[in-house]
Write a structure and sequence with these properties.
This protein has 256 residues and is α/β, with parallel strands linked by helices. It contains ten helices and eight strands. Helix 7 links the parallel strand 5 and strand 6.
């Protein structure tokens, strides 16, 4: 199953990025908006006051929704690491997060893009990160239940080689897709194209950051992305942003 999923392109052309709803309180609205996928979180396995109410609370609220709201859009859950934990706790926290999310999620997103996690993004932590990837993949293979895709979200950076190497490492350990946060740079699509070339189609590639209209989405697709996610334009306009992205609020037509 893992090999089959890794060799197909990411199925969600237009997704809503994480960060908008961390507790599921807007789930019915977001799932009905017209996106191919909606990502909730990022949350941690245990509640963190001032940050999020924890994974169990989010999963419980999503599970309470009418099935008709969760049939169409794919549900993603972003998994983070407790701010009080040492870096060495990352594999166990990710494994715990995956176990908690798999009952309701179609994919789990392991988020290293937020500022609080970026201290891990250096070569000194590569062995730890590789072990975290392998731990998640092992949990996925060993436990019965729904086959939930696993993705890694990372900032793509402007000229740093480490994000590219990290993405390749995650894919080599069994991750299905990379969610790449595009830099605020004139060369942002060059970076995306470089990552797409490095992945060689072995995993899906999703671009997020600065996607505001259908032209932006097409440019990202042309640079090698299988899908895009939006965030800021939705926080500004709500579902009214969808027509500019080539989507109506009442259908799930693909971008052209």
């Amino acid at each position: 199953m893992i090999e089959r999923m890794r060799k197909r392109s990411w199925p969600c052309r237009l997704g809503l990025a994480g960060g908008i709803d961390k507790d599921g309180s807007r789930a019915a609205e977001l799932l009905a908006a017209g996106f191919d996928s909606v990502e909730f979180g990022t949350v941690t396995p245990q509640p963190e006051e001032g940050h999020n109410s924890g994974l169990a609370a989010l999963v419980s609220r999503l599970a309470s929704l009418s099935p008709r709201l969760t049939d169409k859009p794919r549900v993603g859950i972003g998994i983070g690491m407790s701010s009080s934990g040492p870096p060495a706790a990352l594999p166990d926290e990710w494994a715990s997060g995956f176990r908690g999310a798999r009952a309701i999620a179609d994919y789990a997103c392991f988020n290293l893009s937020a500022r609080r996690y970026q201290s891990l993004l250096n070569t000194a932590h590569l062995p730890l990160l590789r072990y975290a990837f392998a731990t998640v993949a092992a949990v996925r293979q060993s436990e019965q239940g729904r086959d939930v895709a696993v993705t890694l979200k990372i900032p793509l950076g402007v000229d740093d080689a480490f994000p590219l190497a990290l993405a390749e490492t995650a894919v080599s350990e069994g991750f299905d897709a990379i969610i790449a946060v595009l830099p605020d740079s004139a060369h942002r699509l060059d970076r995306l194209r470089l990552l797409a070339d490095r992945l060689h189609g072995k995993a899906g590639l999703v671009a997020v950051g600065g996607i505001r209209n259908a032209d932006d989405a097409r440019a990202a697709h042309a640079a090698g992305a299988d899908g895009v996610q939006v965030h800021r334009v939705f926080t500004e306009l709500g579902a009214a942003c969808l027509p500019a992205l080539g989507r109506t609020t009442t259908s799930a037509q693909q971008l052209i």
